[in-house]
Amino acid sequence: MNWALRKAIFSLAAWFLAVSISILIIVLSPGDPALIMLTGFLQQGIPYDQAVRMVQAYIGFSPAEPWWSKWLRYLLGVVTGNLGVSITYRIPVAQLIANAIPWSIFFVSYSLSLTVILGVLIGIALAYYRSNTIFVRSVTTVLTVFNSIPNWILAAVFFVYIGARWQLLPYMGPYSNDVTPGLNLQFIASVLYHYTLPTMVMVLTSIPGWAFGISAMASAILKEDFITYAKARGLPSSRILWTYITRNSILPIYANIAITFTWLLVGTVWLESQFLLPGLGSLLATTSGARDYPVMIGVYVILITAIVLGALFTDLTYGFIDPRARVGET
Amino acid sequence: MSLIEAKGIVVTFAIRKGLKKLPFNAVDNVDLEIEQGMIVGLLGESGSGKTTLGKVTLDLVKPTKGIVKFMGKDIRKMYKEDYRKYRLNAQYVPQDPYASLHPFKTTKDILMDIIKYHKLVHSDKEALELVSDTMIKVGLNPPEKYLNKYPFQLSGGERQRVSIARALLLKPMYIVADEPVTMLDASLKGAIVSTLKNAIQAMRTSLLFITHEITLLQYFGSQTKVLVMYLGRVVEQAPLGELLQNPLHPYTQALISAIPVADPKARASRKLLLRGSPPSPLSKPPGCPLSDRCPFVTEKCRKEEVVLKAISSKHLVACHLY
Amino acid sequence: MSEKSRNLAKQLKLVFKIFSRSPTLLFSLVVLLVYIIAALVVVLGFVPPLPPYKGGWEYMYQPPSLRDFPWYILGTEYTGRPLLLTIIYGIPKTLAVAFLSALITVGVGTAIGLIAGYVGGLVDELLSLAINVALTIPTYLLALILVVILPPELKTNVLVLAGVLSITAWASLARAVRAQTIALKRREFIDVAKTIGYGSWKIMFDEVLRFMAPFIAMNLVLSCVGAIYGYTGLAFLGLMPMTPDNWGVQIYMAIRGGGALYSDKAILALWSPIITIVLLQYALINIAKAMEDIFNPALRTYLQGEEM
Ligand SMILES: Nc1ncnc2c1ncn2[C@@H]1O[C@H](COP(=O)(O)OP(=O)(O)OP(=O)(O)O)[C@@H](O)[C@H]1O
Ligand SMILES: [Mg+2]
């Protein structure tokens, strides 16, 4: 328990440092958002004093303050849950984010579970049938090709062809217009249907990393002595593989889950905006285009928070599954 | 004044067992003195702390307690120039020739780098000459045959020769050779030990020769000072000849009885076997460290610590029997 | 001198041998060479300048033609400029951003990992904290924010872009290098290096680093892949200056400009930059995988075989 608490405190410290350093970079960079906003308001003919007050109301700090006071004030806002007001939507950033979070959680966890399951299966198949060169070569080639396609390019291609041109799958919006949002079957079915294409993109572009990693690990395990021994005892090799892989590779799999989670979360910026889905990613993408700084920075902070929580969650669950993991750390 | 003098050396390591850390002394209150040009043998079973003690004299392991002096000066309290002198004059031939050579460097890279780093000579040509000379000295002859080879292209014996050449290159005053031939064929052992001996005697270099085979020490002559270690302690110290003829400590007697001898009568008279399994530093008994395996054990041995006592001017033993 | 050039020739021959063992690798090497040559051709000014922007529907997405051969064989793009030319103009800048960013990522990551692992103690604690914090900040996320707020003149600066695209990318490499350094520190050749009198810098940046050379080289190439992803991807979001020579902008325009969505009119304008990016990434990923072989002396000598 003591160990879990220590982990949590460490994560909190890392989160705080990550957020404050990012904010520091932002307020110190040559493009201080407060100043840019102020210039924008002044250009609209708003008097200086009022413009300064407006900037302060939107983003939480004033363009006239020294950098450290901007930094402190924004951090204080983050800690108290006050992230400013959106310039484009004119509503509190926190509210915009709260509306977006459930969609992103759904999208990312749906893609993540599919990626992990399919990635592990393909990886094990690669290791198991490694004597079959044709199989290994062709699967490896396909995986390498998908590895080289940036997810936003695959999204664009699927959007244009499978969506717009051939109309095979829905490619815009999170659900169709004729369902009522809520806990009803039609709505859920419609959401799943609309997320098919985006999820395909996420999964196809993240599988290669998993499949290669698992297959390398499984091949290494298959070469070890205890496998030869188990074979000599007459255990069927598929069962050996399954038992030993699951036993010996849980740690790397767990470590990878946090990394893939982060990767997918960042991927939503491109995918949600491409397929016009609600969520943190599309919120960040659209507000970046509109230079809506309060929302941009707010979403950024929330994404960092999600990443830290994701890492903490995998660490803790792994520690509870395998107590040995707790000893490894000092 | 001795070249190397280690006093009261204690090295404490801790090993993890489950969630706990168990501390133990890998080297336990050991003194070691090596004079200029002298060869000292360090004898003991695996795990007795030989390598650790050797590394302490090279400042590769910091002792928990005790001091190491080089030419009378404490190496921890030296001025920078003095320390540098010590550093370059104390060289190491590690135990495992496979792990001690950089796998991505050729023999030439390994040896030339040293000369270039310390700017020992002015031109590449001179450097190559120096390298070739040293290689010939350790039996890598002709040098051209080995210069461009990577460690994995060398045999075990050749690697060990490269490792020795590397230690000799700086013409040091002191070398620690840690079981330099353990991993080699019996036929090669003698050749390499002789090479080492000839090379260091030509330079009047001191040598700490670490081994678990007492027979190897015979190459250095019967006057060689030998320290016998057991579980981190020195249990006996004497010149080799004296040690072979008149071993006092039961542990030394056991070591010597393990040497194969031709004469059956001699064999019978020297028969002595220790009970139990080889020692682990974690299960060191109280009192004398050998008390759980010694055939002559008394009540006193199990309770009272033993210290090294002088039996004659050159013969020391740590045993309650004397 | 002549020995040096002979050595170089031998090395190149060796690299070629490693590559020719697998057709995929050979293909990848050829692809990369083509890109590099194209970049040099542009930089040296052997390519005609981009013609000025031409508004009007009739100039946009024209079909391929043999006019001004070969520049119009892919037709024109959304500004009426020859597509092939704009794509080729994108090569030097993309490669420069990718390579610089990879250098920064790998340089910083390796140095921090080596120092943290080798020096240990308080230095390690502090650097590990920095690594852990940087690990929680995804590079492209912070890069996105910075790209938006930076003034336009900085956004087109190759060095600034490279810095932005490697801002926290070094962290995962630093973590791996640190772990490997800690493991290597216990090896006997490091003990020997100390007794030989090598200083900490020499041990870290020669002995230890040389041991990790294949890994570092692989990461250098993979960092290029990452930087190209970020550079084109952020442009695709419309956040970079809308210069016609950015492949991400070209894809963005082919779709947002409407051309590709409803007809095949912009098919070349959509697929040409896509294939350009994917081909480059594919080649780089394959080359990254081969770095292990190139740097492994055992394999090298095996291939050199008969020459020894
Ligand atoms: N860095 C370390 N951390 C913890 N324990 C150590 C460390 N180095 C050595 N030991 C332990 O200290 C004891 C003595 O080790 P040392 O290597 O000095 O023995 P040795 O006499 O050289 O044995 P061998 O003949 O096997 O080389 C051993 O039990 C070993 O496991
Ligand atoms: Mg040893």
UniProtKB/TrEMBL annotation, chain A:
GO CC, alphabetical: plasma membrane
Protein family per UniProt: Belongs to the binding-protein-dependent transport system permease family.
Keywords annotated in UniProt: Membrane, Transmembrane, Transmembrane helix, Transport
Source organism (scientific name): Ignisphaera aggregans
Superkingdom as given in the UniProt entry: Archaea
Transit peptide listed as a keyword: no
Topology relative to the membrane: Multi-pass membrane protein
Protein name according to UniProt: ABC transporter permease
A GO BP entry: transmembrane transport
Domain ABC transmembrane type-1, first and last residues per copy: 101-313
A Pfam family reported for this protein in Swiss-Prot or TrEMBL: BPD_transp_1
Coiled coil location: none
Entry's localization field: Cell membrane; Membrane
Transmembrane segment boundaries: 12-31, 103-129, 141-162, 210-230, 251-271, 297-321
Stored InterPro entries: MetI-like (IPR000515), MetI-like_sf (IPR035906)
